[in-house]
């Protein structure tokens, strides 16, 4: 959370102008080729012509300093401070500098008291730490982020409607008297125990004219939209105000916000009214101040609200004498610190020692702004701090949402294990365990028929003897995965690409045999063919030490897929095949390009629907005739609705008869579900799912059913 906030009246000297301004700093248009970045005695050369520092380094001594001459620009990066609080810990009345003014002395002591309090808290209480299992890999957003990764993130967060945000800024300096926006932390909350965390490094964004900046802008625009709820510890609009000038979002589009700080204060006060002795004392003080003479002497702006509601046992007022466990703040309109809230609710210490620091230093090691190993470690500590600053209020938010406020007594301190996802009753849950091919899938998806939980682990293999955390064989024995499998209606494995580059097809197939048999012996409810599904392996061109050429690797993949089909009947599991070709691969020859994520995801959804229908047919055979009739009616109604939403339209010549069209569609291998009668030369073809619909769209041109195509079909193309 930023230690200083930007106000509308402040001068934005050195910062990018807002969207409404038409003029931009000339430094934006300078070429960034042949840029020399130096760190004392160390230096590196960068040639990224699209990269731009958003605040002029001339006005930003904490971030960098530029010397331009002989066609080369030197950028000297200052480094963040590893332990900025240590110099405040020994401040006392005895060592206060004598030359300070009264106001300066007050600030000097206040900084010391805050540092000493923080040190005391973190020294005596268990630290608050975000749980890595609750969020996917952290993503830094800056000028070196790949466009493919951003496309995937946009797809992954498309249906997220709840976001926690925070910001960090650099402190004012002698050369720049205003705070400098540096970091925007965004936690996209898929569900209570799963998030995607973004750290947008404001001072390291690409030039606004690049396509990369356009994607970052699109992502932020999607996040800060009227459809989404934005939460912050404080006013979200004020938190974001100084960041709007960087063209990432339009703050006027943010309409759903929650000031969690105010909300927490209200909830706490409702559960912790003043004790009677405090109320009686407050009432006596008001009676003592009833004469006009005393009133003139004692009235002040802080007491006005107290006088308006003297009997309100939940309101804050000055000179409160309640125990600290009930009312830790003793003044009217006091603002809860996030650290205090975490301490009171979870009995955890949220370390705030790094608050005042150089946040524009470039936290991501890939930005290469660090000089020594210590510099990298300091950046790691700052990153941990930034992530904790969004997870802490998120944990508070869900705690307040899930807790009966009347049960919030002074001894009600909970463990983090009590915060968990509330399951949806009577809705089948399917579980997808995937390697990095599923990293852009939403971690949670729900339809009217089922819910889907997705766990994606980069580097996952069927069996990895050296890294158990990357081995399906070991993961299915872990507590977290066991808890999911034990309650799921079916499990889908999208694993194999990492295995196929290291092991022969026969070795992998044996691992699959062992894993499926282990699951069946452990979980009795997963005994049907539809309960376990395994995906075929995608094409791969990234060779390995085991398979030195693409031909050898492709041969191993084909052998694996063939053997997988062979054992599917023996082991009683289903196979999911994807229409993925080499053209879908990313430049690395290993991963699928992010823009094709929806194709793979939709095929999985359609397969789950088919699996669920097959399972229901088995259950249906044991029902009464009346129950079967009612269910069939519902199924037919759903199918009718699906067919009405999956329709293509083509004009058809009168020479085409309905039987000819049916035969032609079969020849084209188009799987349709319905073919209504032709009216007014219009043909409507219905489908059960989007996959068959897309295939038909590709195979049937707009003029496919004209007279010329009919003659060709009748004379040459008939099978």
Summarize, please:
By secondary structure, this protein is of the alpha/beta class. Helices cover 36% and strands 14% of the residues.
CATH top-level class of the domain at 429-620: Alpha Beta
Named at the architecture level, the CATH assignment of the domain at 429-620 is 3-Layer(aba) Sandwich
Number of strands: 18
Major sheet attributes: 6 strands, mixed
Query: What would you call the shape?
Result: elongated
Query: In CATH, what is the homologous superfamily of the domain at 429-620?
Result: SGNH hydrolase
Question: Helix/strand-derived class?
Answer: alpha/beta
Oligomer: single chain
As a percent range, the share of strand residues is: 5-15%
Radius of gyration: 32 Å
Question: CATH topology of the domain at 429-620, which one?
Answer: Rossmann fold
Biased composition (Basic residues): 630-639
Region (Disordered): 621-641
InterPro entries: SGNH_hydro_sf
Please describe the structure with a list of short key phrases separated by commas or semicolons.
719 residues; alpha/beta; Rossmann fold; 6-stranded mixed beta sheet; 18 strands; disordered N terminus
